From TrEMBL:
Coiled coil: none annotated. PANTHER family: OSJNBA0016N04.9 PROTEIN (PTHR33491). This is Wall-associated receptor kinase galacturonan-binding domain-containing protein. It comes from the Eukaryota. Residues 1-25 form the signal peptide. Residues 44-106 form the Wall-associated receptor kinase galacturonan-binding domain.
Length: 169
């Protein structure tokens, strides 16, 4: 078989993949153009790093975030530089995405652990509590999963000193 005969099917496949790529990326680009712009208060920052910050959230100046009735500025975020990259934070937790359409904000939370120390014979705790007291936020019972790693291990979630039943793990 000639090298030309081997090359033609490969070129055909490559051309087909390019056509598929452009035919699929054009509608996505058109949808991006139709997506509403992130709206913030005039003179307020609407982006921190790669995260869009729409109102009622705000960065920096207190007037940029919505003020709630019972607490002061619960929608205020801090835009901080971490390793040379700007990232938004809410009460010390990194915010990775905000969607007003979904009514959700995605945040990275630290891992809590309670491990047995064989040398001392004691349990060592590293708790990372999340406190949304005084805010309109809560942890979603549908969008979160709790993971357990190890042998003879269990997990639980505690809210206001009550253990949440039925973690389904």
């Amino acid at each position: 078989m000639s090298s030309r005969a081997l090359l033609l099917p490969w070129l055909s496949l490559r051309l087909l993949l390019l056509l598929c790529h452009y035919s699929l990326s054009a509608p996505v680009a058109a949808l991006d153009a139709l997506a509403p712009a992130v709206v913030g208060k005039p003179g307020c920052q609407t982006r921190c790093g790669v995260v869009d910050i729409p109102f009622p959230f705000g960065i920096g100046d207190d007037r940029c975030a919505l003020e709630a009735r019972h607490t002061r500025y619960p929608f205020k975020l801090d835009c901080m530089s971490v390793g040379g990259t700007s990232k938004p934070f809410f009460r010390g937790m990194e915010v990775t995405k905000i969607s007003l359409a979904d009514g959700k904000a995605w945040m990275k939370m630290n891992i809590s652990q309670n491990c047995y120390n064989q040398s001392t014979g004691t349990m060592e705790r590293n708790r990372e509590p999340v406190d949304f007291t005084g805010t309109p936020f809560w942890i979603s019972d549908k969008d979160n999963k709790i993971f357990v790693i190890g042998c003879r291990t269990f997990s639980y979630m505690q809210i206001n000193n009550r253990v949440v039943p039925d973690m389904n793990h």
